[in-house]
Specification:
19% strand; Aldehyde Dehydrogenase, Chain A, domain 2; 20 strands; globular
Length: 463
């Protein structure tokens, strides 16, 4: 790319001109383009799996379930429902407007920018793209340079399917992101870390561009004494160590009732061995850390802590074993920063109120997990702890329900998507009130003759 800034500007201009033609507003066009994307994914399935294995050593089952299959479900769901989602949505009209009707009309924002991370490099780029296309927008895509095999394949796929006047993709590092964020888009969708999210938000603010920020943060997991220990351990181990813990909603740390802590730890260790064997480095099912910088960051967390299991590593293989560590001081960096790796601190508590207090002392959470058979305790936690999303008696699965909006709150994100929420996120929901000329209501016009007391009653009656 000889002059990336110039190419990016010219591509955005192409997309602005194409959007003005109105072609993307056709539902038939949107369906046709989504089908082209679906066919390309199906055609390149083997190559996608190979790229994900090369970047993150993902097993084909895990890669298909969390990346390819996830995206195909999103496309199919969208194709099944786009006609209904795109229709004007009638809403109630107050009696005061007795000769009127009201509706909400979804309309595309226009030219969108989607920036995605490396941990799920296929899914986290294409899932928001599906929403942008379904809503009738154009899009410029910026995948992560830290997953080069997957990014290279995505560039090839996108460029072979779409005209750059409709969907374009730019590979590169920070300089490409900076060049993109200097320009005025109509909507920006960013997935990544909180600090970079702040930069994106500041850049968008210069142009008053609306944004969705899918960020990270601590995702606590509470384990009550009244739970099924074996199943709880199995589900925590799966949710924590899938993708080697490099999942934004992975259980970040466990708060467990002191009376069942030892039993839970023993059960988790047993299930780690069942999942990955006595030598996880030799297991075909266990992924790798994305690069040496992240490996070193994670390895630093393991200094001066009490290891309950694991903590073996090999930087040349970008391997860190599934690791469980014992209670640590609340000021330790591992409890202050998002871990984003295969290290799981376990902290005991005496009463559920203590667990809630520990969680609420930290910033907003992207996800929250609670394992308990006691509905009163579950409901108390749901009532007293804020989180972007919650799964009760399991981990991660709320993200896989397209009927549930996925997103963060506070420091963990802004806005949400998946299913219809993706369509609505990339749509301006335009409010429309239609009035008839048959009857006019004279009381609102000056000179005002209606007494104020009657106006108050009238407005109360017509809500």
């Amino acid at each position: 790319m000889q002059n990336p800034e110039l190419e990016i500007e010219s591509t955005l201009l192409l997309q602005r001109n194409f959007f003005k033609t109105g072609e993307t507003k056709s539902i038939a066009f949107r369906k046709e383009q989504l089908l082209l994307l679906k066919k390309s994914i199906e055609k390149n399935e083997t190559r996608i799996l190979e790229a994900l294995h090369k970047d993150l050593r993902k097993h084909s089952f895990e890669a298909y379930a969390t990346e390819i299959g996830f995206v195909l479900v999103e496309i199919n769901k969208t194709l099944q429902n786009i006609d209904r989602w795109a229709k004007p949505r009638p809403v109630a009209t107050p009696l005061f407007h007795f000769n009127g009707s009201s509706e909400i009309i979804p309309e595309p924002y226009g030219n969108t920018l989607i920036i995605s991370p490396w941990n799920y490099p296929f899914q986290l780029l294409l899932a928001p793209l599906i929403g942008a296309m379904a809503a009738g927008n154009t899009a410029i895509l910026k995948p992560s340079e830290f997953a080069p095999a997957t990014t290279s394949l995505l560039v090839e796929m996108i460029q072979s399917i779409f005209s750059p006047a409709y969907i374009a993709i730019f590979d590169g590092g920070v300089e490409i992101s900076k060049a993109l964020l200097q320009l005025k888009f109509d909507y920006i969708f960013f997935t990544g870390g909180t600090e970079i999210g702040r930069i994106v938000y500041q850049s968008a603010a210069k142009h008053l561009t609306p944004v969705t920020l899918e960020l990270g943060g601590k995702s606590p997991c509470i384990v009550d004494k009244d739970t099924h220990i074996a199943t709880t351990a199995k589900r925590i181990v799966w949710g924590k160590f899938v993708n080697a813990g490099q999942t934004c909603i992975a259980p970040d740390y466990i708060l467990v009732d002191a009376s069942v802590k030892d039993a839970l730890v023993a059960a988790m260790i047993e299930y780690i061995r069942k999942s990955y064997g006595d030598s996880p480095q030799d297991s075909e099912f266990y992924p790798r850390i994305i690069n040496a910088n992240h490996w070193n960051r994670l390895n630093n967390y393991l200094q001066n802590v009490r290891i309950l299991h694991g903590a073996t590593g090999d930087i040349n293989d970008l391997f860190i074993s599934p690791t469980i560590i014992d209670s640590i001081h609340s000021e330790h960096p591992i409890l202050q920063e998002e871990i984003f790796g295969p290290i799981l601190p376990v902290i005991s508590y005496q009463e559920i109120s203590e667990a809630i207090e520990i969680i609420n002392a930290k910033s907003n959470h992207l996800a929250l997990y609670i394992f308990s058979k006691d509905d009163k305790k579950v409901n108390r936690v749901l009532h007293e702890v804020s989180a972007g999303g919650v799964t009760v008696n399991d981990t991660l699965l709320h993200i896989a329900n397209p009927h549930l909006p996925f997103g963060g709150v506070g420091d963990s994100g802004l806005g949400n998507y998946h299913g219809q929420r993706s369509f609505d996120t990339f749509s301006h929901l335009k409010s429309v009130l239609r009035r008839s000329f048959l009857i006019d209501d004279p009381v609102r016009y000056p000179p005002y003759k209606l007494k104020l007391s009657w106006l108050k009653k009238l407005m109360d009656w017509t809500l």
